Amino acid sequence: MRTLLIAGNWKMNGSLALVDAFARAFASVKLPARVEVALMVPFPYLGVAAETFQETPLTVGAQTLSDRSSGAFTGEVSGAMLVDVGARLVLVGHSERRSLFGEDDAAVLARVQAALEHGLRPVLCLGETLEEREAGRTESVVIGQLAAVCDALDPAERARLVLAYEPVWAIGTGRTASPEQAQAVHSAIRGRLAAYSPALAEGMQILYGGSMKAANAGELLAQPDIDGGLVGGAALQVDDFLAICQSAG
Length: 249
Ligand code: PGA
Hints:
Number of domains: 1
CATH topology: TIM Barrel
Structural class: alpha/beta
CATH superfamily: Aldolase class I
Radius of gyration: 17 Å
Largest sheet: 8 strands, parallel, barrel
Bound molecules: 2-phosphoglycolic acid
Strand order of the largest sheet: 1-2-3-4-5-6-7-8
Oligomer: single chain
């Protein structure tokens, strides 16, 4: 049985006060048995979040990383630095990175490799735009993004990935994929993973993201191939995020 992962993605939001509010709320919470919870916070809050969350079940993650190890790359943050301040996970290839910051499949692969090299768990984000869905290209786009990374990794590296299917048209729009729509894509992703190895397909956590909230999390997480959520807007309110975590499992 796969463990469920609920990961909050604060994007460029949050504050020290919000880190504190999450630490206090999660210090006494009892989560369902099969549920892990992570928060992907902006760089400046990583170190303090990792320390503050020590007495809670929360794990800390980053939202991106450089594909370089160190050197004269002003403004960049390396995987080693993320590990140094207590991050365990890192998002790679979020659609906002792809569309707003020009990260193509090659850039995404380089960041996944950098994360793996430093012992971080990459959460690789995949998803189609509305135009691609309407053109009937959902599966080919998502599987293409997956293969662009997985084909270049060895089996042990592939097994360390977490995947997040996030239809771009559902991110921050309040429009969620129906459980059936999400399940269909998750199942296609798992089918493609089986071509690498049945054990990889069976073990891979595939999260759903895109306007997940307390009201729809239960039915999405009940789908056989949905193993958690990547939660944006609803991860900025402690109560909403807690309710999503409680509805898993
Ligand atoms: P959302 O964002 O939950 O606000 O749609 C999800 C994400 O972008 O990871």
